[in-house]
């Protein structure tokens, strides 16, 4: 159901940065994703566009939604906006997310931002972009403020019922994220459960620690053991917290709301974007909450641009794929 590519739409080279970040970043924006789309997505796209003069947008959705963005852009700046129009008749929001992901796969954009259905985005991303070897279920990784700094939490909504090998792979992905994006030399990876005593938790949490302890994690990371909910707020026990997507999603939404009302722990003002990066696929995919505000979506677009400019996904893949050569890290496909 993808419409004709608008005249003048330029293709991305898809070449990652080496020693210097590229000046521009083209972000495919899913205009129909989210509870309050398209109005809130239009607002977020315009905020991001105005904040970053090197940002280019590929607007994916109906003519009407794209037109709302174009109407607010100064004529001199319209060469920074392209459209991928889709027919409004019988158009499902998931179709727009798939088209935006296909645009990245086809080199028409460098990254994608969507607040649409998480399951549809994850499946479509895996099909359009491909998964890294050994990754069965790509997780969503979010960043939370903690009293000690920033903490990576995954999964936050993709794999709601993983097995132990899947959690082990997610530990590797999270370690690579912390090393590349947060530039940590030796990330500490913890497994979230209800108690640090051995044998606590459900069947999955009881099975995973032995597997985690035997992992050779990438990027100099190490397994820090079992952690509890208060450790996520404090951030002094682990830099990366691994859990299933159900628990992670509940925890993320609860803490984000608490921090928005009461302020982040430690009284800091540097709040991470309320957006998650999909790990384990060959492309930059950023997912926002369905109830995201215009400010949240603008921050998500800026985050996607930053990840592209740093070639973060390619760097994480290099860490994880090199680590998988270790005989200690065999995970069933």
Automatic annotation (TrEMBL):
Catalyzes the reversible formation of acyl-phosphate (acyl-PO(4)) from acyl-[acyl-carrier-protein] (acyl-ACP). This enzyme utilizes acyl-ACP as fatty acyl donor, but not acyl-CoA. Gene3D superfamilies: Isopropylmalate Dehydrogenase. It catalyses: a fatty acyl-[ACP] + phosphate = an acyl phosphate + holo-[ACP]. Its main location: cytoplasm. It is found in: Cytoplasm. The keyword Transit peptide does not apply. Residues 1-20 are annotated as: Disordered. Keywords: Acyltransferase, Cytoplasm, Lipid biosynthesis, Lipid metabolism, Phospholipid biosynthesis, Phospholipid metabolism, Transferase. It comes from the Bacteria. It is an enzyme of class 2 (transferase). This is Phosphate acyltransferase. One of its GO terms (molecular function) is acyltransferase activity. The keyword Transport does not apply. Homodimer. Probably interacts with PlsY.
